[in-house]
Amino acid sequence: MVLTIFSGFCFWYYFFFIVALLFMSLCVCYSSGLVGFFFVGLYLDWLFYYMTFLVIFIFFLVFSVSHSTGLFVVFLLFVSCLSSVMCCCVYNCIYFWGFYELAILSVLVLLFLDSPYSDRFLAGWYLLCYSVFCGFPLLGCLIYVSYLVGSFNILFWGYFFTDELLFCLVVVFFLFVAKVPFPPFHSWLPVVHAEASTFVSVCLSGYIMKLGLVGIIRFCSFLLGDNLLMIYFFFLFPFCIFIIFSCLEELDYKRWLAMLSVGHILIGGLCLFYYGGLSGFSNCLLFGVGHGISACFFFFFIYYLESVGGSRVIPFTSVVFGWGLSPSLVCLFGYLFVASFPPFITFFIELWLLCEFSMFNAVLFFWMLFYLFFSSLVPFCVLGSVLGGRVSLSNGCFIYGFGYLYLLIACVSLVLLV
């Protein structure tokens, strides 16, 4: 059965209506001076509004782009989106885990059923193992912490501090880190994206990754000043820089974007460590919204490139610029978006974080400068190589050779900065 009621501009009327309702309730919350409030048993705060906007935007975007979507696919996407929204407003840790895993499970089933690629079963096993080996230990830790605290309500967890409880919450923190995923737990993500359909890739990079940040904020917010966690994020800088450099060796657009997405999501985690009041949490969520929308936009560009041109390899992008002005501008806009170029919101979040580091930690400030420079340089290098016609399917060594050249420049720059 084909759903045609979701196509056309009229579908966006519902989106703007829902966003208007969210905005009005947010204004009521802000004017009353509340961080959040309860409504029919759900806890609605800033996190809920940010993430709900992102999920609803992606949900409506998928069905406005697709003109022939099966009913079962619509159902799975709806379940995944609804479960993601419920994750952001429930305060029972067991309910949170259930909705979290249901959102991933729906995407997993969609990966098996909707993907047109032959290796989708291998990618599905990667995603299944990720869900099982991170999900069940997380459930065990949440149940044990609830037993120690005496309540499943996560709003009460910040009032109890014992060594055993803190150790369990550190384990919970790293399980959510693996669910984002931050390096070095990211190796499965490019494989899944390469074999998944566009809709699955949009869901994974759009909001599933952000649920890990939601879990860190909900369960581990009072641990974020811990030195151990700060050391972990300090060593994430070289990891993410090498991941971004490895993008230069990717010829598949989906794998390239997946690696670049993992390299950029570091900013969302770093926003949680240097904050005044709730600014760090809100900036983390704002970055998550910008990161999700940019990934969605570029995945749909890859879908357009593959549907019209028949290929999604990076050298094929040069053909797009022969199709006319509009496709060329869309391609350029996508590269600017994923490179966090101004005036996109992700640029201003990175600028805010850089200013915070400049006041508190000189070492992290220089690491951040180094990271931001190359995280924006790499997408433009790929775009420049395509525009210059220096890369072809028969001569892909340009990307490889210049990848190692930029790696050498990075090492020299690091020595000079230190």
TrEMBL record:
Core subunit of the mitochondrial membrane respiratory chain NADH dehydrogenase (Complex I) which catalyzes electron transfer from NADH through the respiratory chain, using ubiquinone as an electron acceptor. Essential for the catalytic activity and assembly of complex I. It is found in: Cell membrane; Mitochondrion membrane. Its EC number is 7.1.1.2. It is a multi-pass membrane protein. This is NADH-ubiquinone oxidoreductase chain 4. InterPro entries: CPA3_Na-H_Antiporter_D, NADH_UbQ_OxRdtase, ND/Mrp_TM. GO terms for biological process: ATP synthesis coupled electron transport. Pfam families: Proton_antipo_M. It comes from Paradiplozoon opsariichthydis. One of its GO terms (molecular function) is NADH dehydrogenase (ubiquinone) activity. The keyword Hydrolase does not apply. Keywords: Cell membrane, Electron transport, Membrane, Mitochondrion, NAD, Respiratory chain, Transmembrane, Transmembrane helix, Transport, Ubiquinone.
